[in-house]
Specification:
- The complex is a heterodimer of chains A (391) and B (274).
- In chain A, 42% of the residues lie in helices and 21% in strands.
- Chain A has helices at 16-24, 50-54, 63-69, 80-95, 117-120, 123-138, 150-160, 173-178, 190-198, 204-208, 212-219, 222-230, 261-281, 314-328, 358-377, 385-389; strands at residues 8-12, 33-36, 45-48, 74-76, 101-105, 108-112, 143-147, 164-167, 248-258, 284-295, 300-311, 335-347.
- In chain A, β7 (143-147), α7 and β8 (164-167) form a beta-alpha-beta unit.
- In chain B, strands 1, 2, 3, 4, 5, 6, 7, 9, 10 and 11 form a ten-stranded mixed beta sheet that branches.
- In chain B, α1 (30-35) links the parallel β1 and β2 (40-43).
- The interface between A and B is medium-sized, with 32 and 29 residues.
Amino acid sequence: MRPSGASIIHINVTDFAAAVAVAKNPSLADTPFVVAMEGSARTVVLTPSRRAWEEGVRTGMPLRLAKQRIPSLQVLPWDRQSTAKADAAITTIAQAYSPSIQCDRGGHIYLDMQGTTRLFGPVVDSAVHIRGEIKEKLNLDASVAVASNKLVAKVGTRTTRPAGLIQVREGDEASFLAWQDVSLLSGVGVATARLLSVAGITTIGQIAALKDDQVLAFLGKRGLALRDAARGLDSSPLQTGLPEKRLVQRKIRFAAPILEMDALHAAVVAAGEDAALAMRSAGLGCAKIQIALLYSDGRRTEASLRTKGQWVYDHEITLVAWKVAQLAASRRVHVLSCSLSLAELSPLAPTLDLFLPDAQHRSDSLQQAVDRMRHKFGPGILTHATTIAHA
Amino acid sequence: MSTVLIGTSGYSYTEWIGPVYAQGTRREDFLAHYAQLFPTVELNFSYYRMPEATQLAAMHKSAPSLQFSIKAHQSLTHTIDPASWREQALLFSHAIEPLAHNQVLSAVLLQFPYSFHYEIAERKYLDSLLKALAPFPLAIEFRNSSWYNNRTLDSLRQRNIALASLDMPSVKGNPPMMDVKTSNSLAYIRLHGRNEETWWGSDRASRYDYLYSAKELASLLGRIQSFTTHTQKVLIYFNNHRRGQAVANALMLYQLAVGGKVCDLPGQASSISM
């Protein structure tokens, strides 16, 4: 088969935590169950099993409601160790086919297969082999797509999930996307889908057909990016390296060496807000924040803090970053520069905007509003007062 | 565990005398000879000419062990007349009844042309047709890419109807390659060959003039294996019929599937449990 020019493979193990639970305990295959973290008053479903999904249980649904739908519903805790092992095993399989992979965890991985056809044959054959190996070695069913870019490949795996194979030829991206449901397009969450449906837009092709002025009037500036995505345009490269080894870094060099803690505080908050925005835009959260300070005498100090969970929001990151900075600032010497790193990155938990606990919902909504403003008018348009007072 | 049946699209080709059928084999004996090679066949004549019950009953009688898939008549897929299609569907249903009654009807293949788009009128028609043919095991092949979307897949899953998986040249105008299990009882795979040069703008016979290599078949086997989880029956038909290449490839695939080495000697491909 002639190479189609499409060299990106996306592997997607749907409802990963539930799929791993079934692989570990095959007797669960025909059992409706969910993976959830119980304990709070409004626990939500993290991942439903296929059987539970068929009964109408969805990610983000309150556990109470899921149990009403299926009285016999089993609730399993999130087995982080097993899912991490499965993720690592999938990565190992993928690495045998291409050195260029983006491992997003949670059963998602992209491979750039450019230049591998002489070794492995057509890209789609490699996709078939990888899916077969994942099934054989891990007993996990995967959706696998081959396309010319990450965006189309991802829609491909969402189209065929929970398991399947699709190859979209280069040049056919827009026509393939045209009839897919808008909800399959990255960036269209529940709220956007609802907004689009009000205008009678239910397919990706309808977004693609919107003119600039229509997009701007309806979705604002951000809508232009969404419209480009609907046309299958995506030039983003693979983010190689494991997500937990990636860093989002910001460095502030002071115009003049500083000694005042208030000025350091302002720098840390500004760097934290900027880095957090970039991190969230990549769909990631972090579990480690590190601060390094360079002093006027050439010496350097650093400190870090970790969480077992995930830091996502500005208020969390700036608060922790300042604590870390205070730990790092152990010397009474002028500071030349301050580096902030958000590390141990992992994909954001699914968007739960319909079902979030109230307090978290408020934080989420506020953060999304702030991010929208920054994307629209620039990162500096909204910032903490601290950063202005000491600018 | 699935039952996998391998065969060819059509069996009655005079050019198969020599490469497949012994010299001097009469046309009316083709099917009985074919049944000694394969456990299943896809009947294509039924697309051009409305089949008759007596005719199909006679075919079953001449090859009692053979499982049949049958392509729906063109009046149901290509030349649809809103005024008369129900009558045609009734005729077709009546004709295939002997195969269904004798439990040798594996599938009815509905192959829709490029001109059949994912539009409201077509969707309504398809829904009505599927209801009319609901008593039979059904598989659908779409040539227009607009049908390859998540809503179509969901609709087929709800109706337990197989989406035919296709292998064909990766050229402009062909639908995307898509393997998705939409039925628990049936998977349907059609292998049209990969002759890119002759796919468009040549005669029908040249289009299907292709011999899959062992390497290509090994890769196809990987695709086939993905259907064997929780699907009762997997049907595979080679349509690269020119010069008997479909038969050669079907036997090669069988050998690969049962773990034997690829050989040139014709043998018999029985059903496989995978």
